[in-house]
């Protein structure tokens, strides 16, 4: 039995950073109803709790497309992001007939060729699951 051990990287690598949302490159379309749910939740609490998972070298969005779309629609100056690499996440296709690879996801994100909504699933290693607490007002400011 071959088991792969993923060790937690240096804590500095896991710091949530604030990036302009327009610098992030989505890889999937969004679902309007889900975008409304995310928007309503964020606006009700006024606090951003879950960072967007972003591939560190390309700035491709791995997880958080609806939060990213919310930030763009509301003119946010910055959004909380966690920069990871594909060695930090497991990538799955949500469709049996569609093969996804890290290279293809990155290429599509860089080229703007979006997958249909909910095509991929990025599952972070347990040590990479983190939360944050930024007021929406703070994120709106430049």
SSE inventory with pairings:
Elements (H helix, E strand, L loop, with lengths): L16 E3 L12 H14 L1 E2 L3 E4 L5 E3 L1 H9 L5 E6 L4 E5 L8 H10 L8 E5 L9 E2 H5 L2
Parallel strand pairs: 3-5
Antiparallel strand pairs: 1-5, 2-8, 3-4, 6-7
Give a verbal description of the structure:
Helices cover 27% and strands 21% of the residues. The protein has a four-stranded mixed sheet with strand order 1-5-3-4, with helices on one face. It has a two-stranded antiparallel ribbon with strand order 2-8. The chain is globular. It has a single domain, classed as Conserved hypothetical protein from pyrococcus furiosus pfu- 392566-001, ParB domain (Alpha-Beta Complex). Strand 3 and strand 4 form a beta hairpin. It is of the alpha+beta class and 142 residues long. It starts with 16 loop residues before the first strand and ends with a helix. The chain has four helices and eight strands.
Short summary of the structure?
This protein is an alpha+beta fold. Helix content is 27%, strand content 21%.
* Total number of beta strands: 8
What is the average per-residue confidence, as pLDDT, rounded to a whole number?
Answer: 88
Number of helices: 4
The residue ranges in which pLDDT falls below 50 over 5 or more consecutive positions are 1-12
What is the CATH first-level class name?
A: Alpha Beta
Architecture per CATH nomenclature, i.e. the level-2 architecture: Alpha-Beta Complex
Shape: globular
| End-to-end gap | 52 Å
Total domain count? 1
| CATH fold descriptor | Conserved hypothetical protein from pyrococcus furiosus pfu- 392566-001, ParB domain
The CATH homologous superfamily name equals Conserved hypothetical protein from pyrococcus furiosus pfu- 392566-001, ParB domain
Q: Tell me the series of helices and strands, N- to C-terminal.
A: EHEEEHEEHEEH
InterPro entries: ParB/Sulfiredoxin_sf
């Amino acid at each position: 039995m071959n088991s792969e051990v993923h060790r937690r990287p240096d804590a500095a690598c896991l710091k949530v950073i604030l990036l302009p949302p327009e610098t992030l490159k989505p890889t999937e379309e969004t679902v309007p109803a889900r975008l409304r749910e995310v928007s309503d939740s964020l606006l009700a609490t006024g606090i951003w709790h879950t960072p967007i998972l972003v591939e560190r070298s390309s700035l491709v969005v791995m997880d958080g497309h609806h939060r990213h779309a919310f930030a763009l629609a509301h003119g946010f100056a910055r959004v909380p992001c966690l920069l990871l690499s594909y060695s930090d996440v497991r990538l799955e296709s949500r469709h049996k007939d569609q093969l996804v690879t890290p290279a293809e996801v990155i290429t599509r994100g860089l080229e703007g060729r979006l997958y249909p909504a909910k095509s991929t699933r990025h599952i972070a290693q347990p040590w990479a699951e983190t939360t944050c607490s930024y007021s929406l007002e703070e994120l709106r400011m430049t």
